[in-house]
Amino acid sequence: METRYTHSPVDIRHYSTEDLRREFLVEKIFEPGKVVLTYTHNDRQIFGGVTPISEPLSVHLTKELGVDYFLERRELGVINIGGPGTISIDGETDSMKKQDGYYIGKGTKNVEFRSDDAENPAKFYIVSTPAHHKYPNVKISIDDIKPRETGESLSLNERKIYQYIHPNICESCQLQMGYTVLSPGSSWNTMPCHTHERRMETYLYFDMDEDTRVFHFMGTPEETKHLVVSNEQAVISPSWSIHCGVATKNYTFIWAMCGENITYDDMDFVSMDRLK
């Protein structure tokens, strides 16, 4: 597990492209047969990929977190973006096709991930945050989610938002997690952009063509910066940073937030005349 530390807006003022990428971009999320995790000190979120091939995989973090087992004081969100697989939670097994998700509550001791087909492995994207209370484990099937349709083609941001770990779907302590799909011909996610000082966020961009690139914008409204992101790469977005992106083609991403509240619409929108 790699550790990333926190920064203030002043810290990044003179960062080079290389500095920004080193601190905020995670270039490798899924590795066959491995668990790849990043721990960010922004609200102590852990995120990454679990890609089982022929053998099952589990997350084993104890000393790193000062606990006896990974979810002793944490909750976990899972979305499968690869081939079909299964997840076993304290001995109970559920199938997980592409786009299926799971919320796993604090105190769960054993979570095991498997792929049905080594030639088409599952890719479990996982996000974990500290938790103070045990909420029930809930499978979240893509078939049961009615997406929130928003944006419009004229502003190039027509998209569907699938809310997985959200008060409308299941209870959680502070983790929110979901899935946004941009329509063909659309390329902007959230414009005008916004901040939410009360919550940090991570983004996983995926289902992109080899040559597609996302320009992920960050920084303060008055001093914007950007990261160029490829398929299956993730970005850490601090709470003080703007949140928006544009790409060379429509794309898909998983967003995951944690912080002071679980109010999805708690955003501070930035007027266009403030952006520099």
From TrEMBL:
Swiss-Prot/TrEMBL cofactor(s): Zn(2+)
Family matches, as InterPro entries: KduI (IPR007045), KduI/IolB_isomerase (IPR021120), KduI_N (IPR027449), RmlC-like_jellyroll (IPR014710), RmlC_Cupin_sf (IPR011051)
GO molecular function, one term: 4-deoxy-L-threo-5-hexosulose-uronate ketol-isomerase activity
Keywords assigned by UniProt, alphabetized: Isomerase, Metal-binding, Zinc
Transmembrane segments: none
Pathway: Glycan metabolism; pectin degradation; 2-dehydro-3-deoxy-D-gluconate from pectin: step 4/5
Pfam family name, one: KduI
Cofactor stoichiometry and binding remark: Binds 1 zinc ion per subunit.
Residues reported in the UniProt entry to bind Zn(2+): 194, 196, 201, 243
Its EC number(s): 5.3.1.17
Gene3D superfamilies on file: Jelly Rolls, pectin degrading enzyme 5-keto 4- deoxyuronate isomerase, domain 1
Top EC class of this enzyme: isomerase
Catalyzed chemical reaction(s): 5-dehydro-4-deoxy-D-glucuronate = 3-deoxy-D-glycero-2,5-hexodiulosonate
Reported function: Catalyzes the isomerization of 5-dehydro-4-deoxy-D-glucuronate to 3-deoxy-D-glycero-2,5-hexodiulosonate.
Family designation: Belongs to the KduI family.
Protein name, UniProt field: 4-deoxy-L-threo-5-hexosulose-uronate ketol-isomerase
Species of the source: Sporolactobacillus shoreicorticis
Taxonomic classification: Bacteria, Bacillati, Bacillota, Bacilli, Bacillales
